[in-house]
Design a protein that fits this description.
Length: about 50
């Protein structure tokens, strides 16, 4: 599994609300400093109902 695959898996869990509070906080810090990750979150959120 590549880093990109791991990030996508983590972002999916984030969007689905499946991360622990600590994991969510760490990922939100990464998202805030990485425009690419932020765009991926926006894309994933557009697919959720």
């Amino acid at each position: 599994m590549t880093d990109t695959d791991r990030d996508l898996e983590l972002l999916n869990a984030y969007v689905d609300g499946e991360l622990s509070a600590d994991a969510r906080d760490l990922l939100e810090a990464r998202i805030a400093s990485d425009a690419g990750l932020a765009r991926k979150v926006e894309t994933l959120e557009s697919f959720t109902f």
